[in-house]
Design brief:
Alpha-Beta Plaits, two-stranded antiparallel sheet
């Protein structure tokens, strides 16, 4: 097995640090916990593992019964880096945050392995592609999420004055967009408290829902309780 010179070792470690920092900078820009230093450490560590796996056991190969398989260490890095990714993921109700950062940590490890194996071209191209995905695709995601929001409305109306069909016609939404229409009659039996949950609506739609509902007969009060961009999405 060929020996790796000290200069080549230094070059690979520095290249891994540089490529990892480029991806980490994009995460740092969004103020995520896994920023420049984390991505640099992961990339350099993966690179070092690959170097040690490939060149660190040359002295053991003098025995004909010893077989070296560098891919075993690479496979352990791929699976072992998962604990860092898991630490970057936060779940708050139906919203999951940090998936993108966890994925970037995982791919940075792959870049480090590529540099450690001497695959500079693959590492550089992967870095460019990853940065393009993290920075370039996000605006497209924001446009999509703005058109696919969900909202919950609390409505106070006279008893029996509102039905799902009346609401659908007033708001001009489809049946599939009405995810919940829950009516609770108060003790006096003259007023209904209605919870209306709508899905796949835009920010512009949500802004008009209150006025449209308040113009209906029997409606006394309408309030937007909550709205979010795509339940279960990763806004990181």
């Amino acid at each position: 097995m060929a020996h790796l010179s000290e200069w080549e070792t230094l070059l690979r470690l520095l290249a891994a640090a540089a490529l990892g920092s480029l991806i980490g900078f994009e995460r740092e820009r969004l103020l995520w916990a896994a920023g420049i230093r984390t991505h640099m450490l992961v990339c350099v560590g993966a690179c070092l593992f690959m170097i040690v796996s490939t060149y660190g056991f040359g002295g053991s190969l003098v025995n004909s019964n010893v077989v070296l398989d560098p891919s075993r260490v690479a496979a352990q890095v791929v699976s072992g880096i998962g604990f860092l990714g898991a630490g970057a993921i936060l779940a708050r109700g139906e919203v999951v945050r940090g998936l993108t950062t966890a994925a970037s940590i995982w791919t940075v490890a792959a870049i480090g392995l590529s540099v450690g194996g001497g695959l500079y071209f693959a590492a550089v191209v992967s870095t460019v592609v990853i940065i393009a995905i993290l920075a370039g695709v996000k605006p497209l995601e924001e446009v999509y999420r703005a058109r696919n929001q969900s909202c919950r409305l609390n409505i106070e109306a006279s008893h029996g004055s509102l039905t799902p069909d009346i609401v659908k016609d007033a708001l001009r939404v489809r049946n599939a967009q009405i995810k919940r229409f829950l009516v609770r009659a108060r003790e006096a039996g003259t007023v209904d408290d209605i919870t209306l949950v709508l899905a796949r609506v835009t920010s512009k739609d949500i802004a008009t829902f209150v006025s449209k509902l308040q113009n209906l007969a029997g409606v006394a009060r309408v309030r937007v309780a909550a709205h979010e961009k795509g339940a279960g999405s990763d806004p990181s």
